[in-house]
Specification:
Elements: H1 15-23, H2 29-47, E1 50-51, H3 55-70, E2 82-86, H4 113-120, E3 124-129, E4 141-142, E5 146-147, H5 163-170, E6 176-181, H6 187-193, E7 196-199, E8 213-216, E9 219-222, H7 227-232, E10 234-239, H8 242-252, E11 277-281, H9 291-306, E12 310-314, H10 318-345, H11 348-365, H12 371-392, E13 396-401, H13 417-426, H14 428-432, E14 440-448, E15 451-458, H15 464-478
Parallel strand pairs: 2-3, 11-12, 11-13
Antiparallel strand pairs: 1-3, 4-5, 6-10, 7-10, 7-14, 8-9, 13-15, 14-15
Helix pairs in contact: 2-3, 5-6, 9-15, 10-11, 10-12, 11-13
Length: about 475
């Protein structure tokens, strides 16, 4: 590996730098893709972050990108830049396997809307990123593709469910990655692997995908997804820099009315006329932070203050505590509907993890919450959305941990039932935000004992630019070296 953090090979360059170099004919897309393929060959056998890499297909698309540029076609923002696509996202010609062997035999006939947006920007899909089975763990292991390791420490999770995406970025295999997030699945892996993860406002990036089917003895049956998928899950980018994340988010912003939560146009949000306030929320009273987590928060708060933000520390925030509790109710009851399928084909690991999840939810809501409890949960969610928007508006942000702990030890959710129950309260920053649908970014803030520590910034609805500006201030002052430095 190079002894300096200064890029010397195309795979080391940021997506923004690569796009500029390709447009300026300083590099060809073929050169960039070849460089990334060489990096994948060098490090992926150990990390297993990317699966189903098809070099000839990627190089053919890169040659097409170079030919279009030579023919003076107007290049898109990501023309010729490689990107990975998660195994739970439809990409034509690839099975949307979700890491489940029983789902690996039906190639997708079309692309999800977010993949279409990336292609239309000129990006070149290069490999599928690994995830846990059914994307339902904060770890990235499945029976189809095996275990993904954290490139910083193989004994720690790379996060889940977009662990392959984050690990591939951190190790230099690709400059950009697509992921999705319903309970931290973009933000937590990004923090575990020392990269940037963006969870957009629900509806900003289309979550539309071609109809999904399950094979049954009676033939294929179209699957309908429960409310939490439509109102809490999002597609979004992971990147090595905030600038790259902003670029990818703008590319992926595709208002699409086929998405049941999609908006017809993203509202234009004016920048605040005055100083932006940041409220630091260390805890919601359910669990204490590891000292290294508090040190990362202190570093981020100091960076924001140095950049001109007004930072105040709050003694908890009951609204977020309640939102995390609602996540345990609403997501769990929705998953209960598909539990027989997961039990039948998901594999031992995800089923053990789900037993822990249901036990954690039962401690909060009882073994089988009734229908009025579930309906009232959705009603309460709407109230909390309004209250948080009133609190944040367009000139206030929240600064929170990503998790109360460092990146979990591998398989912490399935090796010890007692340990498994400790994970859920620690992940309150990851679960409270999806149930409300607000935008959030995780950004590295500190490197300690060989592990990166990130922080989370949360803004009002459709205030992604405001959140990314603050993330940029944290990144500029953290100055973490890349993994290969």
């Amino acid at each position: 590996m190079p002894n300096s953090s200064r890029p010397t090979e195309p795979w080391q360059f940021s997506a923004t730098e690569l796009a500029r170099a390709i447009r300026g004919r300083e590099l060809s897309s073929v050169e960039v893709v070849n460089s990334c393929l060489e990096r994948i060959e060098a490090v992926n056998p150990r990390l297993n972050a990317l699966v189903e890499v098809r070099p000839e297909e990627a190089l053919a698309q890169a040659r097409e990108a170079d030919d279009r540029l030579a023919a003076r076609h107007t290049p898109g923002p990501l023309h010729g830049v490689p990107v990975s696509i998660k195994i739970n996202t439809d990409q034509r010609g690839y099975a949307t396997s979700n890491g489940v062997p029983a789902l690996a035999g039906r190639p997708a006939e079309g692309d999800a809307a977010c993949v279409t947006a990336l292609r239309e920007s000129g990006a070149v899909p290069l490999g599928r990123s690994n995830s846990p089975a059914f994307s339902f763990r904060w770890f990235s292991t499945n029976d189809l593709h095996g275990r993904t390791l954290n490139p910083w420490d193989p004994d720690r999770t790379p996060g889940g469910s977009s662990g392959g995406a984050a690990g591939g970025l951190a190790a230099g295999m690709v400059p950009l990655a697509q992921g999705n997030d319903i309970g931290g699945s973009i933000r937590f892996p990004a923090a575990c692997c020392g990269v940037v993860g963006v969870r957009p406002t629900v509806g900003r990036v289309s979550d539309w995908a071609p109809p999904a089917y399950a094979d049954t003895p009676a033939g294929p049956v179209q699957l309908d997804f429960p409310p939490t998928v439509h109102l809490c899950a999002v597609q979004g980018p992971l990147a090595r820099t905030v600038a790259d994340a902003r670029l990818a988010l703008n590319v992926m912003t595709t208002p699409d009315l086929r998405d049941s939560a999609g908006v017809p146009a993203v509202p234009v949000r004016p920048r605040p006329a005055g100083t932006v306030r940041v409220s630091l929320v260390r805890s919601v009273g359910t669990v204490g932070n590891h000292p290294a987590v508090d040190r990362a928060l202190d570093r981020a708060a100091a960076s924001l203050a140095d950049a001109g933000y007004v930072v105040e520390e709050l003694d908890g925030m009951p609204l977020l505590a309640e939102a995390a509790r609602l996540w345990a109710l609403l997501l769990t009851e929705d998953v209960r509907l598909i539990l027989p399928m997961i039990e039948a084909i998901g594999g031992a690991d995800v089923n053990t993890a789900l037993r822990g999840h249901f036990a954690a939810a039962a401690a909060l809501w009882g073994e089988r919450p009734d229908l009025p409890t579930y309906i009232n949960g959705w009603a309460r969610r709407a109230t909390l959305v309004t209250r948080l928007q009133e609190l944040l508006g367009g000139d206030r942000l929240l600064l929170t941990p990503v998790c109360a702990e460092p990146a979990f030890e591998q398989d912490a959710d399935i090796t010890d039932p007692k340990r498994a129950q400790e994970l859920y309260p620690a992940m309150w920053p990851m679960t409270s935000i999806p149930v409300l649908g607000f935008p959030a970014v995780t950004v590295p803030a500190r490197l300690e004992d060989g592990l990166p520590y990130g922080v989370q910034l949360v803004g009002g609805r459709f205030e992604e630019d405001l959140v990314l500006d603050a993330a940029q201030a944290v990144e500029d002052r953290a100055a973490l070296p890349p993994l290969w430095a």
